[in-house]
Each structure stands twice: as structure tokens, then as C-alpha cells.
From TrEMBL, chain A:
Protein name, entry field: DUF1129 family protein
Organism: Rothia amarae
TM annotation in the entry: 75-94, 106-127, 139-159, 171-190, 226-246
Keywords, comma-separated and alphabetical: Membrane, Transmembrane, Transmembrane helix
UniProtKB/TrEMBL annotation, chain B:
InterPro entries on file: Metal_resp_DNA-bind_regulator, Tscrpt_reg_PadR_N, WH-like_DNA-bd_sf, WH_DNA-bd_sf
Domain called Transcription regulator PadR N-terminal: residue spans: 20-92
Pfam families: PadR
Record protein name field: PadR family transcriptional regulator
Domain of life where this protein originates: Bacteria
Database matches in PANTHER family: PADR-FAMILY TRANSCRIPTIONAL REGULATOR, TRANSCRIPTIONAL REGULATOR RV3488
């Protein structure tokens, strides 16, 4: 006899493909847990591997008929505040570096162009592509990521060049203003992620788990879904500390 | 020439739903037991990948309800039982099958002139 976790580890490839397919179809965590436990229970009875009794994981997941077609930009409520965080991150880190070096907040046209390009790439990935495309064709995600990072790095290099300035203002007010905006965007991002995680009932729980175990899994799933919203502020703090340390 | 016990798999696919409803008519039971009952009825071995999507569709339509029960020395089992809608569906399916199978049986019962000619030609 094995438990569900042990069994899932033994048949990891099948289980992962099955769970990912149902996730992509927008199925609730509790329903996925129920379906996975059904497969587990059946395989324990027959002594067969899941592929023997249920065939290919993707086909079986689709045959259950839960599919809700995903719309491009479905996760806008989560992604939009995070996008705002990214934009403010550019402004805040540049202004903090300027404060640390006691000079003005200065931007030339190339830096602004790189920022705009980076945002266009991120927006295109969010609104133009479905999550399924990003997972099934990971090169689209990698390409978009490299483009966005490349533009960000190009902007940083361009900021060191002696080019005509478009923005040249005192750094402290920009740093304070963008810092406040970053806090607001972070609060918005955390709230949206938390709300969506709760509404989507995202935790993968088995009906065989006790009530306590199910509650623990739900709490942990909600906390994990909030983490990405905290990454940008965390990076900002580290970048600011490095800026002041290097002076 | 195929044996009489071998038949096109799509025949079974068409009537699997009513057969499963019939098995659930007496008492709540679980997937593996349903597969055993179908096999005992001479319908061959049905795979989990065929049965459970059918049961999930029944559940969505409100024809069956499910309940997890602790297993004896094994993992829990998901039990399926018929709802009143499921019983009504079974009664209707039984009628429909009788109507359909009576006609098909009548048509296939006696060789006609046409089938005799076809036989001679082959």
C-alpha cells in the first residue's frame, strides 16, 4: 500500500502532465485533487500503472470535459499591478542610484526607448499569448524574457553615455514619489494575487486528506501565490543597498 | 471471420452509459467494481480511462452523486450512486434500447432475398 504522495512520486511524469493539463484548463485545485485521487485509488486496486489504465495523461485530462477555454489576458488583474511594479522599479532604482551618487535624476532618449521597448515586450507576452503557449512552447517565454532583460541592460548602459538628456530633475523627490508608488503597486499586487488564489480555490487537495491537512494546503497555496508580488520590492531593497554601498 | 463474442468496440461505447447506470441501480459502488461487473456481464474489460470520464459526465448532469469512503487496508474509494434523475435516465434508456434493439433484431433475424443475393455474389 502506498499513499498518494508516494504514488505520485513514483509516477511523477504522468501525474505532472495530468495536473498541468487540468490546471491549464482552469480546473479548481480541489477537483484536480479529487480526479488524481480517483486515478490513484483505481491503480492501487488494479495494480496497474496510470498509463495502462488511463492512457496518455493529457488525453485523459481532456476526456474529463472540464475545459474552459482560456482567454488571452485572463490574468490581467494580477499581472497589471505587477507590470506597474516593474515600471516603477526602473524609476525608483535609477533615482536611488542618483541620490546615492548625489546627482540629478537624468534620463536620455535611449534609456526611455529601452524602458518603453521592455514594457512593450512584457505587454505582448501578457496580452498576446495564452499561458498554454508559454508552457508548451517555452522558447516564446525565454525569447520574451531575453528581449526584456536585454532592453533593460541596454538602458542601463545607455544611461552611462553622454547623450542629450530628456529628463533632468532633482533625484530625491523622484525617489520618494516612486517609492510611495511602489508600495501602493505592491499592496495592489498582493491583494489581487491573494484574492484570485482564494477565489480560484487553487490548492491541490485530496479528498482523502483530513480537514486540517486540507486547510493547511489551502493556506500554503495562497501564501505561495502572493510571493511573486513581493519579489520586485525585495529586488528594489537589495539594489538600493548595493547602490549606497558602492558609493 | 470474427467470433460472435467479438463485436465492433463502438457498439459497446454506445450502450456503456445505460449499462453503468444499471449496475449502479441496486447499490452505490466504486469504479473498479463497476469494471468487474461489466466484465462479469460478458462485456469485456473496460479501462479506467473509458469509465471515469463517463462517470464524471454523469456527475455533472446530476445523474450520480459521489462519496469518498475509507478503504479497508487500502486507499479510500470513490463511491457512485444513482440520483432520482439517474434513475429516470436509466428507465428512459431501457425503453429506448428496447425499441431500438427490437427493430435491429427484427431486421437482422431472417436472411432476405437481398442478403441471399449478396451472399451468392461474395
Amino acid at each position: 500500500m502506498s499513499d498518494l504522495k508516494q504514488w505520485s512520486a513514483t509516477h511523477k511524469k504522468w501525474v505532472d502532465a495530468f495536473v498541468i493539463e487540468l490546471r491549464l484548463e482552469g480546473v479548481y485545485g480541489a477537483t484536480i485533487g479529487d480526479e488524481l485521487t480517483t486515478v490513484f485509488s483505481h491503480c492501487e486496486e488494479t495494480g496497474e500503472a496510470p498509463e495502462q489504465s488511463f492512457g496518455a495523461p493529457k488525453d485523459y485530462a481532456r476526456s474529463l470535459g472540464y475545459s474552459v477555454p482560456e482567454q488571452p489576458g485572463e490574468y490581467v488583474s494580477i499581472v497589471l499591478p505587477m507590470l506597474l511594479q516593474v515600471f516603477i522599479l526602473f524609476v525608483f532604482t535609477y533615482s536611488m542610484r542618483a541620490v546615492a551618487n548625489a546627482h540629478n535624476f537624468m534620463l536620455n532618449g535611449v534609456v526611455l526607448g529601452c524602458w518603453a521597448g521592455s514594457l512593450v515586450v512584457i505587454l505582448a507576452m501578457i496580452f498576446g499569448l495564452r499561458i498554454r503557449t508559454l508552457i508548451e512552447k517555452p522558447w516564446t517565454l525565454i525569447l520574451g524574457f531575453i528581449l526584456a532583460i536585454g532592453l533593460g541592460v541596454s538602458g542601463a548602459i545607455a544611461s552611462q553615455k553622454d547623450l542629450p538628456l530628456i529628463v533632468n530633475v532633482p533625484a530625491m523627490p523622484v525617489a520618494v514619489g516612486s517609492g510611495v508608488l511602489l508600495l501602493v503597486a505592491t499592496a495592489w499586487a498582493v491583494r489581487s494575487s491573494y484574492k484570485t488564489a482564494k477565489e480560484d480555490d487553487d490548492a491541490l487537495v485530496s479528498p482523502l486528506d483530513s480537514g486540517q491537512e486540507q486547510e493547511r494546503a489551502k493556506k500554503s497555496s495562497t501564501m505561495v501565490s502572493v510571493l511573486p508580488a513581493l519579489l520586485i520590492p525585495l529586488y528594489t531593497v537589495i539594489d538600493t543597498l548595493i547602490s549606497f554601498w558602492m558609493v | 471471420m470474427t467470433e460472435p463474442s467479438e463485436y465492433p468496440s463502438e457498439w459497446l461505447r454506445g450502450v456503456l452509459g445505460p449499462c453503468v447506470l444499471q449496475i449502479l441501480a441496486d447499490e452505490a459502488t466504486y469504479g473498479y467494481a463497476i469494471i468487474g461487473a461489466l466484465e462479469a456481464a460478458g462485456l469485456g474489460e473496460i479501462k479506467g480511462g473509458t469509465l471515469y470520464p463517463l462517470l464524471t459526465r454523469f456527475e455533472k448532469r446530476g445523474l450520480v452523486r459521489t462519496e469518498w469512503r475509507a478503504g479497508e487496508g487500502g486507499p479510500g474509494r470513490k463511491y457512485f450512486s444513482l440520483t432520482p434523475d439517474g434513475r429516470a435516465e436509466l428507465a428512459q434508456s431501457r425503453e429506448q434500447w428496447k425499441f431500438f434493439s427490437d427493430r435491429v433484431s427484427a431486421l437482422l433475424a431472417e436472411p432476405t432475398e437481398q442478403t441471399d443475393i449478396a451472399k451468392e455474389q461474395s
